[in-house]
Specification:
Layout (H helix, E strand, L loop, with lengths): L4 H4 L3 E5 L3 H12 L3 E6 L5 H4 L3 E2 L9 H20 L10 E2 L3 E3 L4 H15 L8 E4 L4 H4 L9 E4 L3 E3 L1 H14 L3 E4 L4 E3 L5 E3 L2 E3 L1 E4 L5 H5 L4 E3 L2 E11 L9 E3 L5 E4 L4 E5 L14 H14 L7 E12 L6 E5 L2 E8 L5 H16 L17 E3 L4
Parallel strand pairs: 1-2, 1-13, 2-9, 5-16, 13-21
Antiparallel strand pairs: 3-8, 4-8, 5-7, 6-7, 10-11, 11-12, 14-22, 15-18, 15-19, 17-18, 20-21
Helix pairs in contact: 2-7, 2-10, 4-10
The structure holds flavin-adenine dinucleotide.
Length: 379
């Protein structure tokens, strides 16, 4: 009998949203033997549109709690892959191919190398750190052409968010979960009982990313979440790209090689477009032009498709997750911003652990829901 079977009986859990957070939560809940129903609408999902960079250690964000979460999230990936039965060395979903990061000048690059070495003391997952001279860049990524050196971190990885969530949901369903496509609403009655599409649940997890206000504001909550539009380009090139590292130029437009010639270039960070999902030629053209400065042959690449998704941001850019204190059977997670592929899986796993009343690796109090989800009546 599986661990937790006794605790889990008579518990019906709804997970609303099957992006990276909801899919991981549902997978681990199903693994613990819970009866899980997953609801997902899917349009604009950030996870399916994401670029796929897992490399938090080279970020210069000063928010220590965010860094702790993101570094723990990156460390957790190999465990997640093992739990899913995926190879760590040959997978289309996740691969530690390393990251090549550029800075404006050598002084800033050396400063970053110093920070990365300090961080490696607590995060050995960062791997080997090497300054790669400009004339050696092509050994790492043959299409690069730059007069600048870069920092290579061997522990950096790339993940295909769409493939990962598909696998998580497939396995959750194999373990007994139910998946329902479509948009749903949550209701809470006077006794704090939770209903999704008029079906009663013992617990509900809202992993709906940028759409949390839409679900909770009708119930009397104010939610500090705003949408941010992100667009990216999917290219095809003739080279064999499978083991190329992720390239992070100075700025926001990255080059992420996947298997068999597939390259992603992106992404935009558009704060004034709300939930709009229209690809726009000027932004896509500009991204390609910027990426081509470092990799000129990308100008000739075949443009296969564009992806557009909506990120969720809080006003101070911090993510939050855990129980809603006014309604403890309700769990939420949002505000993962531009690093949610990195932080999402560990958040999902910890939500499942919290529901199962297990100890979690990180303290939920560091990512307090109450700072971002406020009951208007009790304010
Ligand atoms: C262009 C782009 C590039 C990115 N690149 C990276 C990167 O390189 N590295 C990184 O770490 N992160 C990256 N991110 C960020 C990352 O993708 C997100 O932070 C993360 O995927 C958010 O996951 P989530 O599960 O919270 O939300 P989402 O993935 O948005 O999932 C929410 C789901 O809930 C569903 N939903 C909403 N309302 C309802 C409802 N009423 N009923 C049913 N379903 C509903 C939605 O349809 C959606 O499917 C990127 C994001 C974008 C947009």
């Amino acid at each position: 009998m599986k661990e937790g079977k006794i605790v889990t009986q008579n518990q019906e859990i709804a997970v609303v949203g099957a992006g990276i957070v909801g899919a991981t939560t549902a997978f681990y809940l199903a693994k613990k033997g819970y009866s899980v129903t997953i609801y997902d609408e899917g349009t604009g999902q950030a996870t399916a549109a994401a670029a796929g960079i897992i490399c938090p250690w080279l970020s210069q964000r000063r928010n220590k709690k965010w860094y702790h979460l993101a570094a723990s999230g990156a460390k957790f990936y190999p465990e997640l892959m093992t739990d899913l039965g995926e190879s760590l060395t040959d997978s289309a979903i996740y691969q530690q191919v390393g990251t090549l990061l550029f800075k404006k000048n050598e002084k800033l690059l050396l400063k970053l190398e110093k920070l990365a070495k300090e961080r490696r003391e607590t995060a050995p997952e960062i791997g080997d750190l090497t300054i790669v001279a400009s004339d050696q860049l092509h050994d790492y990524v043959p299409i690069l052409n730059s007069s600048q050196a870069a920092l290579f971190a061997s522990g950096g990885a790339r993940v295909d968010g769409e493939l990962l969530t598909r696998k998580l949901i497939e396995q959750a369903v194999e373990l007994g979960a139910t998946f329902q496509q479509g948009k749903v609403a949550l209701t809470i009655d006077a006794e704090n009982q939770l209903f999704v599409q008029s079906k009663k649940y013992t617990q509900v997890v809202l992993a709906v990313g940028a759409w949390l206000p839409e679900l909770l504001e009708p119930l009397g909550f104010t939610v500090d979440i705003r949408p941010q539009k992100g667009q990216l380009l999917c290219l095809d090139i003739p080279e064999e790209t499978t083991n190329w590292p992720v390239v992070m130029p100075d700025g926001e437009k990255d080059i992420i090689p996947f298997n068999n010639g597939k390259i992603i270039v992106g992404a935009t960070h558009e704060n004034d477009k709300g939930y709009d999902l229209t690809p726009t030629a000027p932004e896509l053209k500009l991204m390609l032009a910027e990426a081509s400065e470092l990799a000129p042959s990308l100008k000739q690449a075949i443009q296969v498709s564009t992806k557009v998704g909506t990120r969720a941001y809080t006003s101070d850019f911090s993510p939050f997750f855990g129980q809603v204190s006014e309604c403890p059977q309700l769990y939420v997670a949002s505000g993962l911003g531009s690093s949610g592929l990195t932080t999402g899986p560990i958040i999902g796993k910890m939500l499942a652990q919290a529901i199962h009343q297990e100890e979690t690796e990180l303290d939920f109090a560091d990512y307090p829901v109450a700072d971002y989800v406020v009951d208007r009546e009790n304010k």
